[in-house]
Amino acid sequence: MGRQPIPLRQIAIHAGVSDATVDRVLHDRGGVRDTTVARVKRAITELEEQQALFEFAGRTFTVDLVMIAPHRFTSAVWDAFEAAIPALRPAVFRIRPHMHERIESTHLIRTLDKIATRGTQAIILKAPELPEVVDAVNRLADQGVPIITIVTDLPTSNRVAYVGIDNRAAGATAAYLISQWLPTRPDNNDTANVLVTLSSQHFRGEEERGIGFRNTARAVAPGWRTFQLTETQGLDATITAQLDDIADTRTIDAVYSIGGGNHATLATLERHNQRPDIYIAHDLDSDNRQLLSAGKISAVLHHDLTTDASRACQLIMQAHGATPGRPTTQPTPIQIITPYNTPTQRD
Question: pTM for the whole thing?
Fold first, then answer.
């Protein structure tokens, strides 16, 4: 059921103007100063927000969080939701987790279908962009289940909105930072060996980071030689196995870690007596905090996961008509974190 319109008289009282002035503003009849128009519109917004609070006071949203990512990252996301949910009161959010480090697409689709059968008010999803996954998301959308993608998007699906950073801009930022910080050597000018690591090219977010990195690298440092690890799932054993072959024959000058697994990457390089000059990673999880503090990585491209969690829940409320507005994608700002501006870790 749609929200009831705010009575004209109530708007007039809230804005401190006459009923006739509000009527002129609502019907664009002119003859009202811009400052007064702004005051009336602000009053309407405030009253709609108040009305929304009354409407969903005590309302419970049961949401399923489905993620494919290493445990270190899913734990950070879960902590973010636990931190964000209390601030959303009077609405109540109950999050049901479905976290996997590695999962076949058939199992993922069965999980999504089971959620739909059991019933849910929304799904927050981090999944690879595979045709069968997109089809499953579209089936859920056809059943009226809002899907919010997080960290990595499924833009070809009927998801409601995406929550996370502009991944292409993040990749470009990494290339720029490496080009600025990498020491210039008289013997090779701008030539350097740069390692780029992904957990999977099937994650749209990681693919976009890679595109942004390569496009910018071609512009700012065309002499770089780039070596890529992919389909590692961000897991230590897979990274080590793949990186051994590269590190045995090439000196790595810089690393852009798109998909995580930085302890394994650094340990493997150290075993080959290598320590890159520059190391750019993503996400301020517990591993990266430790490595940043120890000086083993140069910077972390970070976005506040608690802000993302809160935004995802707000989008769900909008999708259900519980709060004003239509759900839209608004990328989260990227923060460049160094050992000198690391945010305090929440307890």
Answer: 0.78
Residue 261 tokens read as 């697994």
Q: What's the average pLDDT block by block, 10 residues per block, for the chain (347 residues)?
A: 72 87 90 90 82 64 93 91 89 91 92 91 96 96 96 96 96 96 64 92 93 96 92 87 89 94 94 95 91 95 93 94 88 93 76
- The conformation of residue 86, written as its DSSP 8-state character, comes to G
Distance CA 5, CA 3 (A): 6
Q: How many CA atoms does the CB half-sphere of 224 hold within 13 Å?
A: 28
Domains and CATH numbers, the chain: 8-55 (1.10.260), 60-164+305-332 (3.40.50.2300), 167-302 (3.40.50.2300)
297 three-class SS: coil
Distances, alpha carbon 161 to alpha carbons 152, 168, 326, in Å: 11, 17, 10
216 close to 204: Cβ distance less than 8 angstroms: no
Q: What is the rounded distance in angstroms from the CA atom of residue 261 to the CA atom of residue 281?
A: 10
Report the relative pairing of strands 278-282 and 254-257 from DSSP bridges: parallel
